[in-house]
Protein: Helix-turn-helix domain-containing protein
Organism: Halomonas eurihalina
Amino acid sequence: MPDSLVPVFQLYGETRQWPTPDLLHCESIPERSRRHDWRIRPHRHADLCHLLYLAEGLVALELEGGNRSLEAPQLIVVPAMSIHGFHFSPDTQGHIITLSRPLVERLQAHLDSQSGVLSKPDAHALGTTRHHGRIATLVEQIDDEYRHPALGRSHLLEALVEALTIETTRLAETTARQPSRARPRQRDKAREHLQTYQTLIEAQFSQQPSIEHFAEQLGVTSAHLNTLCRRLAGRSALQLLHERLLLEAKRQLTYTNLTIGEVAEGLGFSEPAYFTRFFKRLTGLPPKDFRRRQEADAAGRKQQ
């Protein structure tokens, strides 16, 4: 199927905006797939990576052109840009952990070659391997920390995901000699340009360079950059930059005591009023109201 015909989702089976200030999202498989009659049609993500832990049940998996039926326990890795779809049995139990691109890049910088497993679409049978218990425990800990935030939450979540990545690498090594039916497709030039553009965004978003500046760094025209972003990511080049700015704004409003003006200045806005208009246009809330809502939500979770 041509890339232009494959829908681009921003979360598991959804086109809605990334819903959290966190760099990862965790939910049970039944939470979302039950709403879709246990079937998630083939799609891809421009900037998200899935780690799907299947604890019980069956799944018909479509991954990068390969189709197979898998029985739990399994760990499925779906990198950014990989076309994937799921049809779960109604008795399925497990979790899906979605990693944002900034988090994947942090892992790649910190773990080097040990994070390579996050760029290889595949399914790994756990069975009686010694990795099963560790992976199940890590997924359970990530889910618990995600749902019950406490002091040091973001640091602990990243540490747990780092440990999960290492365990996944070890698991992949034990099955490396087994033939995989879900082989990654050859990267074309457009995908490479998109990946490079996203890396440039991660390094420079707080400076808010122009799209023309990004295009010059890539050696393409701004029109070409916009075209490939819309085709592969479903958003314009400017929207991708703004989404990264918004994510960082949400993180700082949620997890720091910086003033609105300090957040605005740190993200390259010339004045707080411009930042406030930007934030409200994309979220429907002024930054001050967003922060109050996050504080109220956190207080409510602590009382549960």
Remarks:
- Residues 3-174 form a domain with the Jelly Rolls fold (CATH 2.60.120.280).
- The chain has two domains: 3-174, 189-301.
